[in-house]
Structures are given as structure tokens and as C-alpha cells.
Amino acid sequence: MIIEKKDDISILKCNETSVSEFFIVFREKYSNFEGANVIIDFSGLKGVNTENISLFLEFSEKHRNDGTSFVVVVNGINFNSIPDEIMIVPTLQEAKDIIEMEKIERDLGF
After folding, report:
1. Which of 14, 16, 50, 76 has minimal Cβ neighbours within 10 Å of its Cβ?
2. Which of 59, 74, 50 is nearest to 28 (CA)?
3. CA–CA dist 77, 96 (Å, integer)
4. How many C-beta atoms surround the C-beta of residue 44 within 10 A?
5. CA 87, 93, 99, 105: dihedral to nearest 10 degrees?
6. Those residues with Cβ within 8 angstroms of residue 73's Cβ, 6 or more apart along the chain or in another chain
7. Model-level pTM?
8. Vertex 62: Cα angle to 86 and 54 (nearest 5)
9. Is the pLDDT of residue 110 over 80?
10. Over the stretch 44-95, which tens digit does the pLDDT of each residue have?
């Protein structure tokens, strides 16, 4: 896992060989990311599927309940098959844009 922090966003890039391996490392280090907006970047990993992404459902819901954002960047996946509680986008820039929009929504009380 490669960790990059920018302002109040933690960008986690996968350098493991699978989402399952990344998830194990993520779960162990999760306490470092609580309270921050999180982007998980799987854009460089092939074979990511709905089941893999669903591993992060609990963490996505926790961030939403805590007033922070949790966004996953992944290419080549059917976005309609992902639970609505997980925000999925195809690019890192879109993930950053989503976090900014969600911050504005929270500030406005939506």
C-alpha cells in the first residue's frame, strides 16, 4: 500500500497483487485513516470485481456516518452492480471532485 496525504485526503494506492491482499493491509492500518477523507486507487490493478469492492462496504458506511468521504477509483467494472453506499469513480481526479462536492453538501447541511 502506497499512502499519499494531501490536505484532508488520504490516497491509498494498491501495490499488492490483489484486492484481497490490499484489504488485509488496509484493515490493519485503518485506524490511521479514520476521520480523513479516503480515496482507494485501484486504477492500476486488473481483475477488480464487485465482490472485491464490497469488502469495503463497512468502511464506506462508517466514513459516511462520520461525515467524511470514502471513494474507490476503479476501471472496467459495472458501476450499477456496486452497492449505493460505496462511491465508485473511474479516475483519481473524479474522486477528488466527489470529495469536494460532498464537503460542500455537508457544509450546506445536505
Report:
1. 76
2. 59
3. 19
4. 10
5. -100
6. 39, 40, 41, 42, 43, 88, 89, 90, 91, 92, 94, 95
7. 0.92
8. 35
9. no
10. 888 898 899 999 999 999 999 999 999 999 988 888 888 888 999 999 999 9
